[in-house]
Amino acid sequence: MERSLFNRKVILIFIIGIIILGLFMINRNSIALNINNKKLSPPSLVAHAGGAIYGFKLTNSLEALEESHKNGFQLIEMDFEWTSDGQVVAIHDWGPMVERLFMIEERVLSLEEFKNSPVFMDLTLLEFSEIVKWLENKGDIYLVTDTKGGNKKAFKIIIYEKQKNPDSNNSSGIFL
């Protein structure tokens, strides 16, 4: 019995040692860190859902983007959903976030409703194309997308937006 317990401890210590060694051997030459022939340092933090604004999380708003940029974030994750009329907008979900942001019952909004309804704290909610325009002037900011459905269709929209402005000289990017 004691020998079995000793063997388990040795195995556990070995596994922990391998994990620690692995953390020290992270490959900094990864292709994910080389974009447009520019070597990137892995950012230490990602602003989730655009980042927090006025102490509120998950807003995916212009104000949250601006605050994250001001605070030095290079990686910003944003959530995308489809409107009832098939447009891509930045919102975490059509459930509790609709209640929280628009102060109405949970439901999928049309683009017109999304853009023209009163919003909590007068936040500016964005269509995907507006986020692409925002990125064009921000230098080394990278967008990580979290599309809740229709990923292939969303990917086509991302490619289309990139093809509309292929000569953009900034180094911003969009990651799926």
Write the layout of secondary structure elements.
Blueprint: H1 2-24, E1 34-35, E2 38-39, E3 46-47, H2 62-70, E4 75-82, E5 88-90, H3 96-102, H4 111-116, H5 128-136, E6 142-147, H6 151-164, E7 173-175
Parallel strand pairs: 3-4, 4-6, 6-7
Antiparallel strand pairs: 1-2, 4-5
Structure description:
By secondary structure, the protein is α/β, with parallel strands linked by helices. The protein has a single domain (43-175), classed as TIM Barrel. Helices cover 39% and strands 15% of the residues. It is built from 6 helices and 7 strands, in the order αβββαββαααβαβ. It has helices at residues 2-24, 62-70, 96-102, 111-116, 128-136, 151-164; strands at 34-35, 38-39, 46-47, 75-82, 88-90, 142-147, 173-175. The termini are far apart. GO terms for molecular function: phosphoric diester hydrolase activity. Residues 43-176 form the GP-PDE domain. Keywords: Membrane, Transmembrane, Transmembrane helix.
Features:
15% strand; five-stranded mixed β-sheet; alpha/beta; 176 residues; 39% helix; TIM Barrel; 6 helices; single chain; two-stranded antiparallel ribbon
Cα radius of gyration in angstroms: 21 Å
Distance between the termini: 51 Å
**Category by helix and strand content:** alpha/beta
CATH topology title: TIM Barrel
The CATH architecture is Alpha-Beta Barrel
Mean pLDDT: 80
CATH superfamily: Phosphatidylinositol (PI) phosphodiesterase
Protein name: GP-PDE domain-containing protein
Organism: [Clostridium] ultunense Esp
Transmembrane segments: 6-26
InterPro entries: GP_PDE_dom, PLC-like_Pdiesterase_TIM-brl
